[in-house]
User: Fold this.
Amino acid sequence: MKNLLTIAGSDSSGGAGIQADLKTFAANGGYGMSVITAVTAQNTTGVSAVHNIPPESVRAQIDAVFNDINVDGVKIGMLSTADIANAVADAMEVYKPRILIVDPVMVSTSGSKLLSDEAVEVMLTFVKENEGNHKYDQSVSTFIAEIYDKLSDEKKNEAMDLMGDTLTTEL
Assistant:
């Protein structure tokens, strides 16, 4: 049985986020663990509230899991803010999980924005700096393409400067 950690937001309707990841892990024979980055009030029609967990609490959750349990893989979902994204990126630098899937949620199915522009920049930097250090999944390509499509023209130019050949190859 693989020990799998999801780092994401909580979806009160159970259709996404931590709840969906844990169901997926269990359905595939994995032991699911979670680090909650945000608590959302949402249902099938929309997101009515988001409470971001303080970055220090997010990091403490990550440390608690890694310091006790052998983590076989990590899936990163909703990060919301740059401070949360930095806390998660810093922890991944320390723990260096063998498998890391970067698939942060930018917009909910109902259209609510769930990832700040600053958090996008943090994750782009993290992916670029750690390219080749983890077993990346196709979701990294999806993440990069989704981010790029949502950026303003000015931000697209900044992303091209930051990501260089990686971004060009992915698009």
Notes: Helices lie at 17-27, 55-66, 82-95, 117-129, 138-150, 153-163, 165-170.
